[in-house]
Specification:
Elements (H helix, E strand, L loop, with lengths): L1 E8 L6 H9 L4 E9 L5 H6 L7 E6 L5 H9 L6 E6 L9 H9 L5 E5 L11 H18 L11 E4 L15 H11 L4 E5 L15 H16 L2
Parallel strand pairs: 1-2, 1-4, 2-3, 5-7
Antiparallel strand pairs: 4-6, 5-6
Helix pairs in contact: 5-7, 6-7
Length: 227
C-alpha cells in the first residue's frame, strides 16, 4: 500500500532533512510531499538539494500562510492510498508508523490519531501546555461527541478517501480542531494509538504559543456549527 506523507515546513532547515530520511527509512512505499511555507532560514535551499530524490515532491509558498494552508496545498497532490501528516521537526518519530497505520491496514479504521497521552514515552516539558491541550480536547469532545485523549496531536493518518469532499479552510494551526470536527460529523471510524513524543522547548525552536491555543478554541466552536 502506497503511503503519502505530507509535511508542512516553516523555518526547519536544521531538521527537515533528517525527518525526510527517517520517513524514507520506514518499511513502506512512500511518497513524501513537503510544502515550504515561506521559510526564511534556508529550509527551501536544504530541500532543493534533495530535489532529485525518488518519491519526493517539493512545493513552496511565496509567503508564510500557516500550517493548515500548507497541508491543504499538499493534500491536493497526494496519490497514496493512506495519508500521514508529519511535522518537519523531530518531535514525532516516523518509527511509530506501524502502530499508527495498523488500524487502517487491517480494515478497522478510516482515521487514526497518534495520542501522546496513552502511555508512550514522551519528553517532560511544559505543565500549562498539557493543561491547555487537555482543555481543548475536552471542549472538542463535548462538541463532537468523541472521546479522544489528544485532539491536538500532529500525528494523524487516514484513508485517501477521507479527503473527498473535505475542504480545510483554516490557515494557521487550526487544522487539528477543524479536521476533527469534520471527520466526526461524517461519522468515520476513528481510532487512537499511543505514540512517542520528543517535544521541543522554545529555545529549541517550538513555535506554538498561547495565542494559538485561543485560536484553536475559537476554531473548535466555529466548526461545531459551520457547514
Amino acid at each position: 500500500m502506497r503511503i503519502s506523507v505530507v509535511i508542512a515546513a516553516y523555518n526547519e532547515a536544521d531538521t527537515v532533512g533528517e525527518v525526510i530520511a527517517r520517513v524514507r527509512a520506514t518499511p513502506y512505499e512512500v511518497e513524501v510531499l513537503v510544502v515550504d511555507d515561506g521559510s526564511t532560514d534556508g529550509t527551501w535551499e536544504r530541500l532543493s538539494a534533495l530535489s532529485d530524490m525518488d518519491g519526493l515532491v517539493l512545493l513552496r509558498h511565496d509567503r508564510n500562510r500557516g500550517k493548515s494552508a500548507a497541508l491543504r496545498t499538499a493534500f491536493a497532490r497526494v496519490t497514496g492510498e493512506v495519508v500521514i501528516v508529519q511535522d518537519a521537526d523531530l518531535e514525532y518519530d516516523p518509527r511509530d508508523y506501524p502502530v499508527l497505520l495498523e488500524p487502517i491496514l487491517d480494515g478497522r479504521a478510516d482515521v487514526v490519531y497518534g495520542s501522546r497521552f496513552l502511555g508512550g514515552p514522551h519528553r517532560v516539558l511544559y505543565f500549562w501546555h498539557s493543561v491547555g491541550n487537555k482543555f481543548l480536547t475536552l471542549l472538542s469532545n463535548a462538541l463532537t461527541n468523541l472521546n479522544l485523549t489528544d485532539m491536538e496531536t500532529c500525528y494523524k493518518a487516514f484513508r485517501r478517501e477521507v479527503l473527498d469532499g473535505l475542504t480545510i479552510v483554516s490557515d494557521g494551526f487550526g487544522f487539528e480542531p477543524e479536521f476533527t470536527a469534520k471527520v466526526a460529523r461524517r461519522e468515520l471510524r476513528i481510532y487512537e494509538v499511543p505514540i512517542s513524543y520528543s517535544g521541543r522547548s522554545y529555545a529549541e525552536g517550538k513555535k506554538i504559543t498561547w495565542k494559538d491555543g485561543v485560536a484553536a478554541l475559537l476554531t473548535i466552536v466555529r466548526f461545531r456549527f459551520y457547514r
